[in-house]
Amino acid sequence: MSRSFRSLVGIVALISAILFTAVAAGQYWFLSHQLRQETTDDLKTMSEGLRNDIAFSDGWNLEGYRRITSAPEIYFVLTSNGTLVDFHGYKGMLPKVSFPFRFEYDRPFQFTSDVGEMWNLYVHRLSDGLVILGVRDAMTPPNVNERFAKSAARFGGSAADALRTSERAIDEAFDFAIIDSDGTLRWGITGIPLKTAAPDIPDLAKLAPVQLLNGNLYSSFIEPVTSKSGQKVGLIRVFEDVTDEQRVFISQRYSTQLSPRSSGA
After folding, report:
1. How far is CA 222 from the centre of its chain?
2. I want to staple 125 with a disulfide (CB 3.0 to 4.6 A). Which of 34, 105, 209, 254 is the partner?
């Protein structure tokens, strides 16, 4: 084989490799863009739905919002001063929480939040944290104190026990939150007015960077809540598990690094 022929073969191989890489990179870009757009659209639709249900005007009039029966799987709603309006989801979505009320364990009490909702609350001690049960005053069922005690006992003695407790085992009238001794909100189905750090509210709705939480990757969308005058009064943040999508990205990215020869080795 002549030197010139070997040189030609080398050039053809190089061009083929470049073309392969370009096509693979194009496929990766298209796939990542498509999946990212689908995730953004889904999260935006969910956050806008919550914002419309909240329908903030001149104050946090949440009566209509509390009647909705469908919501995203993982989300939270915060006021500008860090009051938790609503939450559903996993550990790590929120900064550590604190309590704007004084309480004694296993003794029912009432508290009116700074968004104007009166709650009947019950705090049950765990060995490494606590469980808070709550119901808005307007929705309080009969014999609420007995029902509080009965539901609280079903959470067991530790945070691990509480996390294993089926939601169906808890009185359907109650919201609840499971909190570690360090203030981490482990799980909640709750509008119980806990406090956390005042959020950084963006001027416009935006997609946040992907986060690693509890071993999974989550994309999230932040929707500001504003008054009629345009004042930022809170935010909605909706999450979606994108672990599988990110694995596709990584696989596709890896394939772009392989030459036709190495991919068939």
Report:
1. 10
2. 105
